[in-house]
Amino acid sequence: MELVAGFVLGILASVIASFLFAWLSASRQRPLLRKLRHPLRHWKIYHRSPEREIAVRIRELFSAWEKRSINAYLTCWTDDCVRIQGSGSNVTEGKSEIEAKFRNSVAKYEIIKVPILLVEDVAVMGDGETATADVYYRFELIRTVDRLPTIEESREVYSLRKVDAEWKISANIDHFSEITAAQKQNV
Hints:
Elements: H1 2-23, H2 26-37, H3 39-46, H4 50-67, H5 70-75, E1 77-85, E2 92-93, H6 95-108, E3 109-124, E4 130-143, E5 149-163, E6 166-174, H7 175-186
Helix pairs in contact: 2-3, 3-4
């Protein structure tokens, strides 16, 4: 009897493991692994803390992009913010160029969705006034002209600082510019 019970339990465990492996795609595995690797970071991001406030600011940025709200988007940035175009570049954009790029994006794409957004690591510096956030996201864009989709995944690091007791983005590297430039060179 014990042999039969062990056999049945083994098959049941195998079926459950197979189901979980199929169900846990890479995008579903990331949040689970992040929680397992750094349980305290997870707690800090989801409870009242500077890390949570920073995660909320990052979510507001991407939500504003999805909703095409220029005012909400620009509110997330400091007045003297910079965006670096690509990780190996010295080309920077200020707030006016960030605004122009946002307007171009919402004009070019009929649909902007960010189905996966993970603030994976937030490091508040010793002064408590500056921080960095490591962000992984997947975005899906549908072009207005021909309805062709663009689906990309990216990892970016944002620098933030407190301005009037609120966290604002002061800098980031725009990896999408880097991808777009590489695609243009290959054409």
